[in-house]
Please model this.
Amino acid sequence: MRIGKTRRQLFAVALAVLALMLVAQPPAGAALAPLPPARAAALGNLGATVQNIVATALRLIGGGGQPTPPTPPPPAPADPADSIQVSGDDVFVIIGSTLRHPDDSTSPSAPLFNVAGVSMNVTWGAWAASATSAVRTTGGPHPATDVEQRFANLIPGGTYSVFWGTLNPDSENPACPGVERTLPLTSVDASQQPDASSFVAGPDGSATFRGRVDKDLFEATQVYFTVIYHLDRQTWGSLPNHGEFNTQGPECRSSFGDDAMRQLLILQKW
Model:
């Protein structure tokens, strides 16, 4: 039971006065007479004691005169990704005189190239060795999705961005309608570099990225993240590649495979 501060004080006083009245009330039919000094003092002490007891009880019940804050809901448990896949859709190997996407028959030592035949200075084996884990928590009065991704075996010193997407409902990037379905995962670190949804892998290829989306992504039927490697070390804010950044609007065109390559596909809810 919650009682306002003033009402609790009045309640305490009323109880104390009532207790004093009950103790001090003379027997029925007895004539009123001045109380002996000793009894008057005892009654005064009793009244103070009653008031202290009531005040203490009210503090225990009502939190010392302050409303008891609601207990926050516990955070949702960590949710591991359903699947993590290395993507070869935006990188190429040379077979004979032509560029081809790597497949199961590609040698781990095969060098990779972009769509223009420019060497990426990395082998298929090193590209395919990348790994990550992804977790999320949701909760609070305004549902949100918190994501932590820990990476290993990325390209050492490589520049990366993280984007998210959903199916049913389908996400869409408003800057590149009909082409780009993903949106940037904004870091919880206000000083994140090189931009709010990007990071640079360490010398050993490791990295940790923590982001937040201000809605519960898991209300969608499917949720996924893409981890994008920037060959030219340039990032583009709300868009994942240079082509989309330069052609924003109804004529938007992607340049995946040229300056940006999707290295990891994290199927978080699939």
Remarks:
- The chain has a mean pLDDT of 85.
- The chain is about 20% helix and 30% strand.
- Residues 5-62 form one domain.
